[in-house]
Structures are given as structure tokens and as C-alpha cells.
Design goal:
mainly beta; Methylamine Dehydrogenase, Chain H; Immunoglobulin-like; 5-stranded mixed beta sheet
Length: 268
């Protein structure tokens, strides 16, 4: 009889409501900016199948965290999206056998946490780079299914489905890497602010394979800025946006299966 719904911030702040009598009556459990959730479009809600008072919510937009957990039926919310890319997020799913395992789908792919949101890693191997619209768990074959925008439905075994609790890959030598905010930011595509080119810098602690790409807010790839093996140290890549419309453009640095994301603003 317990159902949760969320409302969009069109005529009022975003809200999360609950009914415990099959929809006869509803109670507002949380309102944006007052209960710890952002005033963004709520895209998905999922309830712990073993505890109806534990609820997860994901939000679209930019500039805020995108994943929150409530341990008390929606009265208070905890930000567990630290470590996830700051891009619109559309889906969240819990493994019913391992409810500490959380899967999130956003405009860059799928991410997984095996410790209830403390740490995250990319879980998109074998999938195209596209917007993830929905996630669901298939109990019959212990798999995660992801519905992509314009790229079909993809399936992958859940973490632990083969009797192991390992993630993407076996342990390897650790690489410390950092992605810096582009400078200048924002920058003008016409050069009216002094330059039409922005610089993107990243640091590596050892030689590794690097991919640096720019996307639009729909998750479509715009340009590959760097791809290949790079030595340790600081690297700088120039990006010119003369042929792009003004707007926000996420840029994504991938080192193996690890990913860092920042966004830049192009103005006229």
C-alpha cells in the first residue's frame, strides 16, 4: 500500500509525496531546498524492497548533486551522489539481493556503488556512449538492463552475479589523475572576451591510456580532444567552439575504466 511520487518544479518547488493507503490520502514528505533535495526535475524513485522506509531519488539538471537517499520514508535526505558526474541523471536501481549495490543511469552511462553510495565507478563497458533513460533489474538471470536514448536496450550481469564481488577489472597499478576546470570559463565562441579558445588541463602520475571527449547536454559526442597513451605530468589541450551554439558542454576524461567529468560554458 506504500507508494512514493515526485512532482516537477513547474508551478511550485519539487516535492516528494507518500501514500500508505493505496492512494486514498497523500502526505508531502519533502520539498526541495527544505529537506536536502535540489529544486530540479526528479526523474526516478526506487524503494528498498526489504525496507519500504528507505527511498532513493535521482534528479536532472546541472550544478547540484543528482542522487539522494532517505532512510526515514522521505522526511530527511542524504546526498550520496558525490563522485558521480554532474550531468542529468534519469534512473536508479537497487539489487534486491544486495541492497547496498546501487546502479545509476545518467547522460554519460551507468555507474555502480557497492557500499551504498560511498564510492562509485563506471559500469558502462560494452555499451555505447549515450543517454541512459531507464534501468531495471532482471531477477531471472541476475542482470541489469539499461534503456538508451536512440541506442536500444543493453544487458549486463549484476555485480556478484557470478559469485564474485569484483567490479570492472582485476586490480592494476594505481594511476592518480586529475582533470582541471577549463580556463577561461565561460569563454566566447566569437572571441569577444579576448579569446575563442579555452584550455583543458589534466594531470597523470604515470603513463596511461587517455581519452578526452566533449559532449553536448544530450549526451552526444561533439569532439575527441585526446586519445592515446600519455606520459606522466601535466597536459594541456585547446578547444575552440566557433562552430558550436552557446550552451553548456560537459567534457569527460577517461583513464581505463575510471572517469572524471567537468563542464564548460560557451557564450556568444
Amino acid at each position: 500500500d506504500t507508494v512514493y511520487v515526485a512532482t516537477a518544479p513547474n508551478f511550485a518547488k519539487a516535492m516528494i509525496l507518500r501514500t500508505v493507503d493505496g492512494g486514498v490520502t497523500w502526505e508531502m514528505m519533502a520539498q526541495a531546498e527544505e529537506a536536502g533535495i535540489p529544486n530540479r526535475y526528479p526523474m526516478d524513485l526506487v524503494v528498498n524492497p526489504n525496507n519500504s522506509r528507505e527511498v532513493y531519488a535521482v534528479f536532472s539538471g546541472f550544478g547540484t548533486s543528482h542522487l539522494f537517499r532517505s532512510p526515514d520514508a522521505g522526511i530527511s535526505w542524504i546526498d550520496i551522489g558525490v563522485g558521480l558526474p554532474d550531468v542529468p541523471t534519469s534512473a536508479v536501481a537497487l539489487d534486491p539481493l544486495f541492497p547496498d549495490h546501487i546502479y545509476v543511469g545518467n547522460d554519460l552511462g551507468v555507474y555502480v556503488s557497492t557500499d551504498r553510495g560511498l564510492n562509485w565507478e563506471e559500469w558502462s563497458r560494452g555499451m555505447p556512449t549515450a543517454i541512459v533513460m531507464d534501468l531495471t533489474i532482471s531477477p531471472a538471470n541476475r542482470a541489469l538492463r539499461a534503456a538508451m536514448h536512440g541506442n536500444g536496450v543493453w544487458e549486463r550481469k549484476l555485480v556478484g552475479a557470478t559469485g564474485t564481488m569484483v567490479a570492472e577489472a582485476p586490480p592494476a597499478k594505481s594511476t592518480t589523475f586529475r582533470l582541471h576546470q577549463n580556463y577561461p570559463n565561460p569563454f566566447s565562441k566569437s572571441g569577444r572576451q579576448g579569446t575563442a579558445i579555452t584550455k583543458i588541463r589534466f594531470d597523470l602520475s604515470r603513463t596511461d591510456d587517455v581519452v578526452l571527449k566533449v559532449y553536448n547536454v544530450l549526451g552526444q559526442e561533439i569532439l575527441t580532444l585526446a586519445q592515446g597513451k600519455y606520459p606522466p605530468g601535466r597536459h594541456e589541450i585547446g578547444f575552440e567552439a566557433a562552430n558550436l551554439p552557446a550552451g553548456v558542454y560537459p567534457y569527460v576524461l577517461r583513464i581505463g575504466d575510471r572517469v572524471l567529468t567537468k563542464k564548460m560554458l560557451v557564450v556568444d
